[in-house]
Amino acid sequence: MNALKYQTIIKNGQLSLPPLDLPEGTVVEAILLIKEAAEMDETDYLLSTEANRQHLQEAIESLKNPDSYIYVDAANLSGKSPF
């Protein structure tokens, strides 16, 4: 099974997709994921409460101190957590 993903906006009640390079007669199953208009994005969520804002501010401050960084050598990763 192959998958294609497109994001589009309904206009005049119609769903429009770009031309698909599929053979004539190909059976296609479509699943529509409908985003809510007032969907909260990650930034809005992170700033939505005082506790979240404080946690975000602390995380930003910790980035200013390179001594707190955890360096990882991707070549030595074994799939096990170093913690």
Give the SSE map.
Layout: H1 42-46, H2 50-62
Keywords:
83 residues; mainly alpha; 2 helices; flat
Distance between the first and last residues' Cα: 38 Å
If you compute it from the alpha carbons, what radius of gyration comes out, rounded to the nearest whole angstrom?
22 Å
The secondary structure category is mainly alpha
Residue runs with pLDDT of under 50 for 5 or more positions:
none
Order of helices and strands: HH
DSSP summary, beta strand count:
0
| Strand proportion | under 5%
User: Helical stretch count?
Assistant: 2
Mean pLDDT: 84
Helix percent reads 10-25%
Please give the largest β-sheet: none
Task: Give the CA-based shape.
Answer: flat
